[in-house]
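Colleagues,

For the teaching module next term, I've prepared a clean inverse folding example: a structure given as tokens, and then the sequence designed for it. I'd like students to try predicting residues themselves before seeing the answer, so please don't circulate the second half yet.
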């Protein structure tokens, strides 16, 4: 099947893309010990600049919320802004566009990574199906502290300031991370949000924080440079919802009313616990640009774009090992599989040393 539909231009809000192939956000743990992006990161992203849009990795909006072994980047200090400016300059010089994914780790954080601070969440419910990496090796997740209602404005303001810092760092927009069992997703889903009050209970309340954070980012960037990522089915980080289809429809509808640049939908569950056609539900409720993610082949991606279901597709793990993924898809060349052992290490191996077709 032809993949030609992937090579047509599209506008996501006011972000102009030359093709429909996006690089999904991929945590790689190559920042320094102060969460400052490195020169190595600038090289890595510039290598992948033929993507229609690069969505940079999950980036801490506030100090003290590390969840990936203390080497994921932040956007809350001047040094981090300067480090990211080197990345955006390199990507722009290579001819691409890049947005920053704004993220709070919530209950996936650990006190050993955050100066002894207990992680926070909508409810005091521990992640039970995995352990996390800490300076003392793998450890069980901790039971988080329930955020008080009067603390939530501080969270929203943290996202707002991070959006301002992303603008100062030269990004083309931001993506709000409302997926994969981190703080905003924890509020969304009833398996992790068992609180009462304005941010708990019915879906309208559980979605309130995501929508208020999105609105804060819109206040900085305008709706036409803000995207949102959700994962209604994904059980990663011990997540579950009693009605993922209803959640998809409601959240998509509310985000559609905000007029955001795109909705980035993770369509499946890493572990197959929950099933459902969330793409159709989102497409019916969201009247803007829908970006698909998770397990798409180039041929399936092209078909979804041709049918008008998706505006584009974000490729994840194959962007680790195929810096020239766009060229490989265009030529019909098989994609290289990545080495998972180097996903979260700290040097160039398995990061900037994957070859291109050009050598």
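(Answer key — instructors only)
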């Amino acid at each position: 099947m032809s993949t030609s539909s992937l090579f047509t231009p599209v506008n996501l809000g006011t972000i102009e893309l030359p093709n429909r192939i996006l690089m999904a956000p991929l945590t790689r743990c190559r920042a320094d010990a102060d969460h400052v992006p490195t020169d190595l990161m600038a090289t890595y992203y510039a290598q992948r600049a033929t993507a229609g849009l690069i969505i940079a990795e999950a980036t801490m909006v506030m100090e003290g919320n590390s969840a990936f072994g203390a080497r994921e980047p932040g956007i809350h200090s001047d040094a981090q802004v300067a480090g990211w400016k080197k990345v955006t300059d390199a990507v722009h010089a290579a001819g691409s566009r890049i947005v920053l994914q704004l993220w709070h780790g919530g209950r996936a954080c650990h006190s050993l990574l955050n100066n002894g601070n207990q992680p926070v969440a909508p409810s005091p419910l521990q992640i039970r199906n995995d352990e996390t990496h800490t300076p003392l090796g793998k450890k069980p997740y901790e039971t988080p502290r329930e955020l008080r209602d009067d603390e939530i404005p501080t969270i929203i303001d943290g996202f707002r300031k991070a959006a301002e810092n992303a603008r100062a760092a030269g990004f083309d927009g931001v993506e709000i991370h409302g997926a994969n069992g981190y703080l905003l997703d924890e509020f969304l889903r009833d398996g992790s949000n068992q609180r009462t009050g304005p941010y708990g209970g019915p879906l309208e309340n559980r979605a309130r924080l995501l929508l208020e954070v999105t609105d804060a980012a819109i206040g900085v960037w305008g709706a036409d440079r803000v995207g949102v990522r959700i994962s209604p089915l994904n059980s990663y980080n011990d997540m579950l919802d009693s009605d993922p289809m209803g959640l998809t429809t409601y959240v998509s509808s509310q985000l559609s009313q905000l007029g955001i640049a795109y909705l980035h939908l993770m369509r499946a569950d890493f572990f197959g616990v929950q099933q459902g056609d969330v793409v159709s539900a989102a497409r019916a409720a969201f009247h803007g640009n829908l970006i698909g993610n998770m397990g798409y082949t180039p041929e399936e991606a092209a078909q979804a774009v041709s049918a008008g279901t998706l505006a584009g597709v974000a490729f994840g793990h194959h962007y680790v090992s195929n810096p020239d993924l766009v060229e490989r898809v265009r030529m019909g060349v098989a994609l290289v599989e990545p080495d998972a052992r180097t996903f979260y290490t700290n040097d160039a191996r398995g990061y900037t040393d994957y070859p291109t077709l050009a050598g």
